[in-house]
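Subject: Sanity check before I submit

Could someone independently write out the structure tokens for this chain? I want to compare against mine line by line before I put it in a report. The sequence has 363 residues.
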Amino acid sequence: MRSFFPVLTASLFLATAAVAQESSDEMTSETAVESTDESVAETLVNAEPAPAAKPALKPKPKPKVVEVRKPVAAAAKEKPKTETTGATALAPITKPDTDYVMMRVGSQDVAASEVRHMWEGLFPAGSAPDFTSLKPDMRDKVLRGVMTERLLLAEALKQGVDKSDVVQRELEDIKRKLIVKNFLEAKTADIDEKALRSEYESQVAAMKDIKEVRARHILVASEKEAVDVKKQLETSKSFDELARSFSKDPGSAKQGGDLGYFTKDKMVKEFADAAFDLKKGEISAPVKTSFGWHVIKLEDSRPVTVPTFIEAKDALKSKLQEKKLADYLRTVIKQTDVKLFDTKGKELPFSKDISEKSKNSDG
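---
Independent answer below. Compare away.
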């Protein structure tokens, strides 16, 4: 919710896509992997436990390591070029110390800060290339987008579109969300380095005796199939080969059934109990879960990997922000009378509890 524009023009969109394409060619293959078929675990990760279906087989997510790879902003690191491009030959715009009028569209002045704000609003926070370092042809596409947006805005205002009920309702909705967003950001602005390090040390201490394992599995629909797979493994058939051929988990099957490292608390209980009882290299008997029948092989076991403070910092900050906001909201909600009514004004049962275990969320 970083910015709202009356029109996202084709010029702006194409300029954004072009910058993204330039940098995407330089990215690692990790990005492409993210869009491949998801495994059973990836599809249902973080699902709330329910009587009919336990949480999926998902290795415990570790605090994300900050990846050193070129984001969209990599294009900004190119040195500005001054050669003529197409029909336009403009020198690169230097970054000014103060704001100035960059464009005039009819009688409308457009400040450089407005152009930069519009440009940055098209990217995830902090990832937009520096506008002053764009190539001339790319910069012109953006400016033509600004020009088009301003012309359309002027025509819309002439026709009173801004006074319509639809626009007014949407503006009010945007206004509410923006006010709440900024209010919540201000409420958590005091989470400092000291608080983050304290939380980090607390979590590291809690992880001291936790073990994680790396396992492979072959998921099939029936016990009979699982027994057959186990027999083939006992006759020296390759686990990797059988997983690729028979496993119904498309994501892990392509990796020979490899699920990577995970902790016990993030797995379906039946699967976790079986996996953590195995010795390195040992293969389990068929194990039944809500996903089907599994044959599991333990590859490795080790103390859980503890991320560095820098690696965990962003996740720690998000956690503390969520906790602080939740505590604040509970206080405000507790002090406020909230009632729910039906179409005839009759009061209906309603719980104000916003905790994860509230009656309304238990299903």
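---
OP: Matches mine. For the report I'm noting this point. Residues 83 and 89 are 7 Å apart (CA to CA).
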